[in-house]
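User: Structure tokens for both sequences below?

Assistant:
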Amino acid sequence: MSIPSDVLRALRSAIENGQSELASQTVREALAAGIDPLVVMEEGLMDGAGALGEAFECGRVFLPELMLGGRALKSAMAVLTPVVQVRRESSPAGAPAPIVVATVLTDIHDIGKNVVAAMLSASGFEVIDLGVDVPPKTILERAVDVDARLIGISALLTTSLPYMRDLIDLLVSKGVRDRFKVIVGGAAVSAEYAARIGSDGTAPNAAQAALLAKRLLAPHPDALGVV
């Protein structure tokens, strides 16, 4: 087994087991070993977070373990994000498109949102993360303040799903629905539900969410060939 593979496996394990200090230390080791930051994110952080999320959904781990994993992810991202930002700032592309992300009202789960936010940032977007348990009105106000072009909202709990519809209904009632693209995600969200509430789409993972955002914000969306 190569050293990079060992490091990535250790990083996934640190996220799954909620080991914050080990997670941040392992990110440093991965970068020092010359592993591309996006590989660290996708094959280390995202895989670890995805495995933890699946374990939670299946009842193999519970809320305390999920929260510890979220903290480990944040600790790791604190090391990785500055490296990704330097890469983004050195890119010849123009100013990044602002995206507002949040976990909706009554839901405090953020591990999936954090992974998506990290992938969006790595993909060149400016991400404004509002955190968890955020009311639709607050999401809209912040999106207007930063002149966002896309809003991404997440829910792990089925009881929180109505607040996704509430946000879209609020955009419609305020006459600004056409101003924002809205993508939805989280364990509670299906493609059918995303379509039913009038969102602009959902994605099965963070990498696909970034591709979806690129398609929705591209001058000619069909050119990217993403469905």
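Moving on to the next sequence.
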Amino acid sequence: MFVSGNWAKAFISSAEKSGCDVNDALATVKILASWIRSLPGERSGSFAALKLEKLIREGTAKSNSSSAFETALRFTLLAVKKNELRRINSITAEITKILDRQQGLVKVTLESAVPITEDSEEHIKSALEERTGAGKVSINKRINPELIGGYRLTIGDRVIDASIRSQLQKLEAQLAGLGGIEQGRNGGS
């Protein structure tokens, strides 16, 4: 059974044992996987892995001899051999999550109806660092006019919605619920 977390942990362990920069190796995996996907022909199984290794080594003979490249190449070819290249995006996403946790980094998406000020962004960062215990908070800002006002934060799979739109939707739901109560009272008279 495929578990992206197991592949991610194995990759990180292998990179650390080889003494290479894990982020460099991860970037190389992404490049290799993208390139392999663009090639015609079979991209899974042992035979395909051997052909690809030969092709990659010939093409990079003089330029890539780093331990990060070797780690990335071995890992990518293993994914080809095990017919898991199609899942490389979920594996690399899991690797990134693990590395972020190790580094105390929390990635946040901040949506607002209008651009937020630098002061507001710093206030949000400070509050999140304090509440999450993160060493660093990285904010990816997006403008979403549908929010009307306020903001929506997405931290992993958690959403904090302080937008005017969500407040209006809650109010609408409450009023709809009251409408049912009023109809019940009036219908019983």
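User: Anything stand out in the second?

Assistant: Residues 26 and 72 are 7 Å apart (CA to CA).
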